[in-house]
Amino acid sequence: MEVRVVNVRKEFERFPALHDVSLDIRSGELIALLGPSGSGKTTLLRLIAGLERPTKGAIFFGDEDASQKSIQERNVGFVFQHYALFRHMTVADNIGFGLKVRHRAARPSAQEIRRRAMELLDLVQLTGLEKRYPAQLSGGQRQRVALARAMAIEPKVLLLDEPFGALDAQVRRELRRWLREIHDRTGHTTVFVTHDQEEALELADRVVVMSQGRIEQVGTADDIYDTPNSPFVYSFIGESSSLPVKVENGEVWIADRPIGLQAPHAPSGEAVLHFRPHDVDLLDGCSGCIAGTVAASRRVAGTRRVELEIGGERQRVEIELPVDHPAAQKSRVAFRPRRWKLFPAA
Amino acid sequence: MADPEIKSYEPLHESRSAAVTESGPVRVTLTIVTLVFLGVFLLLPLIIVFKEAFAKGVGAYFESLSDADTRSAIRLTLLVAAISVPLNLVFGLSAAWAIAKFEFKGKAFLTTLIDLPFSVSPVISGLVYVLLFGAQGLLGAWLKAHGIQILFAVPGIVLATVFVTFPFVARELIPLMQEQGNGDEEAALSLGASGWQAFWYVTLPNVKWGLLYGMLLCNARAMGEFGAVSVVSGHIRGLTNTMPLHVEILYNEYNAVGAFAVASLLAGLALVTLVLKTLLEMRYGAELAATRGH
Ligand SMILES: Nc1ncnc2c1ncn2[C@@H]1O[C@H](COP(=O)(O)OP(=O)(O)OP(=O)(O)O)[C@@H](O)[C@H]1O
Ligand SMILES: [Mg+2]
Q1: Which residue CA neighbors atom 8 of ligand 1 most closely?
Q2: Are residue B141 and residue B26 in the same domain, yes or no?
Q3: What residue numbers bound the domain in which B249 lies?
Q4: Do B16 and B136 fall into the same domain?
Q5: Looking at residue B63, which CATH number applies to its domain?
Q6: Which of A72, A84, A152 minimises the CB distance to B187?
Q7: How confident is chain A (346 residues) per 10-residue block, as mean pLDDT?
Q8: Is B194's Cβ below 8 Å from some Cβ in A?
Q9: B228 and B279 fall within a common domain
Q10: Which end of chain B is more exposed for a tag (fewer CB within 10 A), N or C?
Q11: Helix B243-252 with B256-284: angle, nearest 10 deg
Q12: Whose Cα sits closest to atom 11 in ligand 1?
């Protein structure tokens, strides 16, 4: 099922949690909402589910306007961050709940519900635990039950709010792979919220980066990482360094020196240069480069991070060097970013 | 003082309790005071109730219980409890639901209002109904014109009892529901349940022990209420006397065995309530709210 969010605005008591958000989710896609805390990820997910109503705008499921439909009519599977399993029901009853509450005409028989529950339990690899209560399960097992319960209603869309948020790193990685497998097998259109960029980039077909109630960028992991379209995305995804620069006649300057970067389309004036610390060329001589004094140097796993002080204003930037690179021993280092982007000064 | 000895009698894991624990004699004295107090003020009266009730033998005891007026008082008390407990179950559940699960203006005020019956004297509660429904009261003339008898009749007694016992269920459920939040209900709705199904299959089971606990206390109070009921009942023997009122009448008539026989039933009710309450607390303590002991 294709889902379109069109110019949605959401206010809580006049406080805008989402400003004019639009997003097209393709049928069968696994898409991640990624952003810092408070950026509106949960709010957007709840709007799609129908747990909240938009202040303005509309949400389409296929060609149907779903915004006026109740949550029951939307037929979405929602997995809550803290699972929200029914504590007084067994695992099997939890999974079968969505079928049990159907209208008489659409309700399968008790045996059929049980059969479906067992099937799903199999799918989430919890065979044999059907008689347990939620309190008798581990966090990872509860998470899987919550997912099985959401899938039991054969939802058009599967929505997961920080599905692995409460689990430890090891289990997260396992469940991540497992979720991808399940998605590939069942083909549900799936939206999941996370603030773990590794999780988003690794798992999702496309990533939606959000900040302060707005969508900053939508794209594949490669798009987002290699061509960030805003300073926020640049600094939020992966490592980044930035320097205030000046553009004059299509050339980039720091203080009174051109640094050898051409920006023919950038308007002249103040700007901010962004680049990845590992994506730099080290230079020996310096006619057109960024040169700085080494202020600090740290060993980070297989590389060395060097903090440089640049120019008279002593701007600090970080670059990454191979551990055995001779430059690490020097007091002055010159480099030029290999890939970079200019954004207008804030 | 850097006395090295200090360490030896202040091991870390005990230091907190060691700091607040009194010395032996003080502890013993406190315990004895408490026990004597409980004995004199609670246990002794309870024993006397049963002793007096059986003072003239088992035969006299059952004879006085089978007296027509006494039987009518028992019936009335059961009737009042049977009406007011379910009513307050519904009221309490709705009030707790509204307060715990929704945001609205005047919520704090409503919460205070629910506690009102606990903070005013039951006699005042009764008097309010007299002022409202009495012959000279606000609605008195209208009620009389339509031949509706509220005061000095069963409806008045039920109303007064409902008022006095209103907080029990609500106060038990509010913190419980607040703690549980909306998550489970939202999950149920997202799975296609109607509001009613979510309530029946999810909300109610989540609070069932708290609800039972509240009902138990509500019932004990409904059967034992004296002040408010005394004002509105009119003390008509065989008609508007509840058990507590009947005890007083019998006692004033120097019918000690009769009075204490009825009192023993009330005491028995209190004991049963106490046992059930303790059992509930022991088994489902974690599920009950932190509002014990009212
Ligand atoms: N029910 C509500 N009432 C008032 N404000 C709310 C409500 N829900 C969310 N907000 C506000 O809306 C903004 C976005 O919240 P949201 O829960 O969508 O953030 P999030 O991206 O999911 O954050 P997190 O990663 O911490 O879960 C926040 O500033 C939050 O305070
Ligand atoms: Mg959230």
Answers
A1: A43
A2: no
A3: 57-291
A4: no
A5: 1.10.3720.10
A6: A84
A7: 94 93 95 94 95 94 89 92 92 95 92 94 90 91 93 92 83 86 90 91 94 95 92 91 89 86 87 91 81 86 87 82 78 88 86
A8: yes
A9: yes
A10: N
A11: 150
A12: A17
